[in-house]
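Fold this: D-inositol 3-phosphate glycosyltransferase
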Amino acid sequence: MTSSPDGQPASAGSAEPGRPLKILIGCDTFAPDINGAARFAERLAAGLVERGHEVHVVAPNTRYRRSAVHEEVIEGQPMTMHRLPSVRWLPHDWLRFIWPWRSKHYARKVLSAVQPDVVHIQSHIVIGRGLARIATQRGIPIVATNHVMAENILDHTTMPDFINRIVLKLAWDDAKRTFDLTRAVTTPTRKAADFLERTIDIAGVVPISCGIDRRNYTPVIGPREKNRILFVGRLTGEKHVDVVLHALARLDPALDVTFDIAGGGDQRKALEALTAQLGLSDRVTFHGRVTDEQLRELYSRSSVFAIASIAELQSIVTMEAMASALPIVGADAVALPHLVHDGENGYLFQPGDVDELADKLTRVLTAPQEEYERMQRASLDGVAVHDINRTLDTFEALYRDEPLPV
């Protein structure tokens, strides 16, 4: 163990081969938040604990209170949580953050208490930014995963567009400064890696799937009793759930299609109003936040998963739907084409094109049984490469500074 410039212990930079690691995961969003970045961090942390590593997670508290250190059980695995005092971002319905000018202070406290072998930050915004800078001072290696498209954050500001553009540039400039401190930068897909490399002029971004544990899902091969469309996710602007509602209104009434929407968000009231305006209130159910058991039941009984989002860096919910043997109809944008292979496990449509979405949904819902089951099996085959164990193998190699598995 060496000493850092501020006199604190520093990690050696790479762990002994085979030795269990002490890993600190820094998150700006984590359970009980429900979003792709939080879900990935939860599964990663739980998978690492299951493999014998000591995992600490630093994340915002659920309210503004003193820092709390305690054990939490996440995805069935116990881990040490370092919850930091946080405040709610008022334009958003649940997002919480710590004061940015306190991030380095908290980073010093947590790093001194944990003394990890490696730090894995899940964003460059607040907690990750502070951890990266203090970990660098102490010689602790850093791995960063980017789940953020800064443009999405602007949906939750109340500032004019010209201010938003300035903020966006500053945000990406700061992201580059943070990522320049790391041993490795990862994103969920090759397309997301290309986007990041172009946006902030860095090289060598490693695409690593968020991964899912397929054992947690129940694929049911065969037609459903009723025609049910499903969407799961945050009800925010970039998800474009309104596009699915408009498409539902254009489907043949004889198909008797219903639409289940699982998730909460700032757009829920507007979407409920649109549902009523379109005369769909008796066919659309807003379930809000659901338990894992309820979610699995929704996947298993649905006929097709529809996602019109234009901002998916991977889309864990789409992978969950595939692991549940659902055909997918998704927007041809960002990462969704990596998961939805047009004509194989479902169909792609041009983002925002209501008529094309309605047509593709109709193709799935009217497909002969043999064709429908072929799409179901294609979803199961396509999600196999996203097994969580492949993801864990790759991150372990990055933490140990070893060659990545093929």
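Residues 258 and 283 are 5 Å apart (CA to CA). The first strand starts at residue 2 and ends at 3.
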